[in-house]
């Protein structure tokens, strides 16, 4: 049974004319190369970078506000992980509160404080990521009964499980805005439920989805938050070695005031960093959709097909996701593909009812190269790539078309040509004509030239089967 219904392909793109990027040295070896990374591509002809196709789950919405203290969870600012150790999906999400604050009391597990504002962080779990439970915990009580509230008085939290952390008490990490806005706090937990007291770590408005992650290429934590200079919302970045001492946040992405960069959950993925940018269409219809951005270093961010959504809104005005879509932090990579959780809301940007939803994406399918003029083939050539001598594999959608790869040395001399690929493939080994043996190229620099006809190429790798 197919649980997913496809939405229309997001055939929206950045046109890439024949161009070259200067690379004096081969880029460092990595396990996988995304073609959306401009450092990988040397030149193109009749090629465009096209956004991927998401599929929205037939079970959407996965959960909605059903509890007395879930007054409006419109943005959710969801943080979803799959805990390998517990074999459990875990979700932390946001709600605004109103009169029920007077009915709230600390439970036996409370380790932090009851103060600040009218927001709370809630907790849900799932065995399959589709059917969710809101557990009864004794951190906070409502009218004397257990709730799924794990923290009170914080705004737009970012939570993740840090597998690098040696101290079990700091295994789960949180960044949180506070009320009134202007400061961002950090705190820690051993289980994601009982949290230490919040400590102020840097100044920022932070009234959005604050999120943080370990940046492997930088060997430090990076946090993404928001500032609101004048009348325009902008994306801010800061960094830390220990999650306690943070640099002063600096602006890294800004949209026009008519289509503002509302928030941007960001995460490392296959040698780059990706951001799911919420765009507030303040000048047109006041709806919010989600776009894609990428960065080589978490500092320089580049929007892919700016103005075009990766997670499109519904155009049915009675839909629960007609008005706003905000991506959750850190999509989850599964053997079947990439899970992108998000919140859907029926109305324009405002406090309102919200729902947790799910979309999926094929592996590496964030964006890929295809022909700008579909009547002719596209050519994409890489920069010099260090070869391991292991088999070349590619990820592409080629059903109904073809992809062919030519292998060149660092001087541009053709070494081998592949047999055509004519199916949709994920990390499929390339077969070479004339029984060419790639092991002879170990520790040499090579280039790849892709000939693309009615197909899309997303990525390639050496040695991944």
Give an account of the 3D structure.
- With 465 residues, the chain is mainly β.
- The protein has 2 domains: 4-51 and 367-462, Jelly Rolls; 55-361, Glycosyl hydrolase domain, family 43 (Tachylectin-2, Chain A), CATH 2.115.10.
- 0% of the residues lie in helices and 47% in strands.
- The protein contains no helices and 40 strands.
- The strands form 9 sheets. Strands 1, 6, 7, 28, 29, 30 and 31 form a 7-stranded antiparallel β-sheet that branches. Strands 4, 33, 34, 36, 37 and 39 form a 6-stranded antiparallel β-sheet that branches. Strands 23, 24, 25, 26 and 27 form a 5-stranded antiparallel β-sheet that branches.
Q: Helices and strands in order, then pairings?
A:
Layout lengths: L3 E3 L6 E4 L16 E2 L6 E5 L1 E5 L3 E3 L5 E2 L14 E5 L4 E9 L7 E3 L12 E8 L10 E6 L2 E3 L1 E4 L1 E8 L10 E7 L3 E8 L9 E6 L6 E5 L4 E8 L6 E7 L9 E5 L5 E4 L2 E4 L2 E9 L7 E8 L6 E3 L19 E4 L4 E3 L2 E9 L9 E7 L5 E5 L6 E5 L2 E2 L5 E6 L4 E8 L4 E4 L7 E5 L15 E9 L2 E7 L3
Antiparallel strand pairs: 1-6, 2-5, 3-40, 4-33, 5-32, 6-31, 7-31, 8-9, 9-11, 10-12, 11-14, 12-13, 15-16, 16-17, 17-18, 19-20, 20-21, 21-22, 23-25, 24-25, 25-26, 26-27, 28-30, 29-30, 30-31, 33-39, 34-39, 35-38, 35-40, 36-37, 36-39
